[in-house]
Amino acid sequence: MHEAYARMMGEGKTAAYSDLTHFKAVAARAMRQVLLNHARDRNARKRGGGEERDRVSLSGLADEADRVLGVLQVHEALARLAELDERQARIAEYRLFAGLEHQEIADALGVSIRTVELDWKMAKLQLADWLELPV
Fold it and tell me: Looking at residue 12, what is its pLDDT?
């Protein structure tokens, strides 16, 4: 969290967030990037790089509450989803990395809550398929 916050605030930057939802959306992106960078750094090390990977829980995506996937797998799946539907990928990122609720996501994206609910349902199904998770 500290590293994500530092990334968001940067050197000499002043925060320009319109509201708490906007802050959380930016935090989700920063957290994803921090986790991704850590996973890449660990894999890049010459010794022990592939032994233990950073993990992220996707219990909200799968029925198995203890299912854990590598950050790189999740990142690749979200990037693949973004190629198909950018909004669904952003919704998934906000849910998985910031824990935003549907109303908060709807406010952040300027869409209806029903749109978020439908897009999240589609995104979950697609990600579950690609990550080989039970639906």
Answer: 58
Q: What would the two tokens of residue 21 be?
A: 């939802």
Burial class of 87 by CB neighbour count within 10 A (0 to 12, 13 to 18, 19+):
middle
Place of tokens 């709807």: 106
Rounded to an integer, what distance in angstroms lies between the CA atom of residue 126 and that of residue 130? 6
Q: Examine the pLDDT at 67 and tell me if it is beyond 50.
A: no
Nearest to 77 by CA among 135, 32, 108: 32
User: What are the CA-CA distances from residue 106 to residues 19, 41, 53, 133 (Å)?
Assistant: 13, 34, 33, 26
The residue count of the chain comes to 135
With vertex at residue 30, the alpha carbon angle to CA 12 and CA 71, rounded to the nearest 5 degrees, is 150
DSSP string computed for 84-119 = H-HHHHHHHHIIIII---HHHHHHHHTS-HHHHHHH
Q: Which residues contact 134 (CB under 8 A, 6 or more apart)?
A: 62, 63, 64, 128
The pair of three-digit structure tokens given for residue 61, joined into one six-digit string: 């995506």
pTM, to two decimals = 0.61
User: What is the CA 115 to chain-centroid distance, rounded?
Assistant: 19
